[in-house]
Amino acid sequence: MAIVKTERHPELPPPVSQTGVIGWLRQNLFSNWWNTILTLVSLYVVWEAMSALIGYTIINANFAGTTREDCTGTGACWVFIKARFGQNMYGFYPEAERWRINVGYVLGAVGLFLVLSDVIKDKKWPAVFLFVVYPILCYFLFYGGFGLPKVETSEWGGLFLTLVLASVSIFVALPLGIVLALGRRSDMPVVRMVCVGFIELIRGVPLITVLFMASVMLPLFLPEGMNFDKLIRALVGMSLFSAAYMAEVIRGGLQAIPKGQMEAAKSLGLGYWQAMGLIILPQALKISIPAIVNTFIGLFKDTTLVIIIGLLDLLSVIKSGTTDKNWLGLATEGYVFVAAVFWVFCFGMSRYSIWLENKLHTGHKR
Amino acid sequence: MKKTGFIAVATAVTLLAGTASAATLDDVRAKGFIQCGVTTGLAGFAAPNDKGVWEGFDVDICRAMSSAIFGDPDKVKYTPTTAKERFTALQSGEIDVLARNTTWTLSRDVNLGFEFVGVNYYDGQGFMVKKSLGVKSAKELDGARVCIQSGTTTELNLADYFAANGMKYDSVLFDTSDEVREAYIKDTCDVYTTDQSGLYSQRSVLADPENHVVLPEIISKEPLGPLVRHGDNAWGDIARWTLNALIIAEELGINSSNVDEMKSSKNPEIARLLGTSGDLGSQLGLGPEWAANAIKQVGNYGEIFEKHLGAGTPLNIARGLNQLWSKGGILYAPPAR
């Protein structure tokens, strides 16, 4: 008589210690005594840091009220940010006119969404709107004209000014950077030398120097009473500066494209601009996306340097606020708030670039 | 030094290039406002309030000028300037007057081509210590650890003072005033040194201001005052005598609430200042009510001081040197006659 089991033994689930949360924990965090110690120490550090941060920013913080006296807790005094929220967002822009900025934001958001997302396949008209119509519209909306009262740029400030600086610089830097990059690789000696000279000159000095030259030196050489707008000086300085960096980023992309691509394009009978526009640049720009966005993010953060020429962007308007004698000693709250706002914008740009890379990846991904 | 030389040359070029715009007063009247350079923010002296309106001790100098010229204190536009670009802004004509806690020095007055119209705040470098230390005078600070903000003349003054008194110290340097304050709170150092007005404003944000004391010694002279460009003395006169009028008003007991009654005063000095007799206003190219308007709409010197810096404010700065000469200070305005 053979003792043979005829039916299969039912499959048992894997032991508890191997699956689910516990399994994962055992495998990744507590696999040996050394990892266990590391995990416990890390947990302790995270707990200490996070509880202090959350305690300061949320649990012990003050949200209600309108004056300094309403801040009684040991945590952050968000009343300060709240009471001056309009100023932090719009600077000294007259309150009655702030709807104009909001309209500009909404139009910009719609335009950006149509151009950047995949909702509309044919991007020609959205692009025309965003890159041609929108800037002109914004000029009249923000500055005045067509019946809208004029608002001097000296009254612009806060997050609004930061966004104006960043978006204008980005808007100018990318096309100018492409032109400079192509010029640097050109066969024509004069064009090449001009481009190399410009790029190396600008890259050779810090942004703060460029801004300082534009703001301090330039007026000295102009006749008294003749002044360019301070904001325009800053915008020109920042745009040229970021264009030089952009040019080098794009040149890197251009150099990564094998020579055969250009030769193939030419053998098809395409001219220089057609080959560039249809074959080379799409590929070069695609592989440069991480570096381009990197430059944009750097540029966005560099806008805070305009404080040295007395423009009150988000950071400096809050710094000025902390010197109001009714709100003394709240610098930490200001810096935390500014850091949070900057993080949101920079993280947003970074996520978009990753999404774009994935969308455009067509088999060259490593 | 090289830089000031360059600015001087550049200024000369500018002056040669633009001989126009001699009469700032006419320009100001034509555009309808004064363009006033202020700091980007210094507690009590100039800062935007919650409504975005600039307020402060320096700001009120510009407001008083606006009252004297237009009879309205709010015909002023403010340009926030940093320490680095304030002088260019004035030289290039971007602003008409700079009221930005600027120390009156020879090289600024002469070499940079400016005209300081007076002193509205006598400042100087001082020391703050914790009361528990039991120090009563800066002479007792031998061997102390001193917190300083780097890159300012404060460092030099400190070294000079301690060397002159044969004392030793350890300096602890920080980049911003906020960091210095944190270090002082955490006992990284015993002494906090900077300009006295700055010490008072730093003290006001400590959790326990009553446990800290600003020592009486002042180791450097920092007379702060408004300034204008060289070359337009009539405009400089308006700035100078607006400031003087505010000081004289305090001396004579004229303030914003009693200025109208004072107009019928028998005192000839008061009558001249308020324009009920004489022609001081028209000598300056202004209306007869110039000083009366400034006093009524902005206040006399004492009122402005109390409003922005005095005991009623978180800064709680004592008048000290900025008291009238007749009351133990050194504030002394030439007579208006």
From TrEMBL, chain A:
The chain crosses the membrane at residues 33-59, 99-120, 127-146, 158-182, 194-218, 230-247, 291-315, 327-350. Keywords: Cell membrane, Membrane, Transmembrane, Transmembrane helix, Transport. It is a multi-pass membrane protein. It is found in: Cell inner membrane; Cell membrane. PROSITE patterns: ABC_TM1 (PS50928). Gene3D superfamilies: MetI-like. SUPFAM superfamilies: MetI-like. Residues 159-348 form the ABC transmembrane type-1 domain. InterPro entries: AA_ABC_transptr_permease_3TM (IPR010065), ArtM/GltK/GlnP/TcyL/YhdX-like (IPR043429), MetI-like (IPR000515), MetI-like_sf (IPR035906). Its main location: membrane. It comes from the Bacteria. Belongs to the binding-protein-dependent transport system permease family. HisMQ subfamily. This is Amino acid ABC transporter permease. The lineage of its organism: Bacteria, Pseudomonadati, Pseudomonadota, Alphaproteobacteria, Sneathiellales.
UniProtKB/TrEMBL annotation, chain B:
CDD domains: PBP2_BztA. Residues 33-262 form the Solute-binding protein family 3/N-terminal domain. Gene3D superfamilies: Periplasmic binding protein-like II. It comes from the Bacteria. Residues 1-22 form the signal peptide. Belongs to the bacterial solute-binding protein 3 family. This is Amino acid ABC transporter substrate-binding protein. The lineage of its organism: Bacteria, Pseudomonadati, Pseudomonadota, Alphaproteobacteria, Sneathiellales.
